[in-house]
Amino acid sequence: PEQSALEGEQHDEIQRYLQRLPAKYRAVIVLRYWYDLSYEEIASALKLTPALVKARLHRARELLARYMQQEDTKEGAVNALPRR
To answer: Does the domain formed by 2-79 have CATH 3.60.110.10?
Structure first.
């Protein structure tokens, strides 16, 4: 049960990060990592070039990393408060 609860929390956290992404970046992330589509398949589905798909995936991963880092920084600030 504990493992299931942790997985549920992680899923919710990932969903929050994805919702923050602009739609054009969210689409390529979902198609690549949820549906396991190739760059060519994503390009065809979204009417983009494979090079643009790669660029958007790169940018989307950068944004997700930034969101996660900001969240860690906020949590670190809360956890760093002095005890009384």
So the answer is: no
pTM exceeding the 0.85 threshold for the entire prediction: no
Read off the tokens for 84: 């009384």
Residues in CB range of 43: below 8 A, 6 or more apart = 49, 50, 52, 53
Q: In 3D, which of 5, 34, 21, 35 has the Cα closest to residue 66?
A: 21
- Going from N- to C-terminal start, the domains of the chain cover 2-79
> Of 31, 32, 25, which Cα lies nearest the Cα of 56?
25
pLDDT category of residue 17 using cuts at 50, 70 and 90: very high
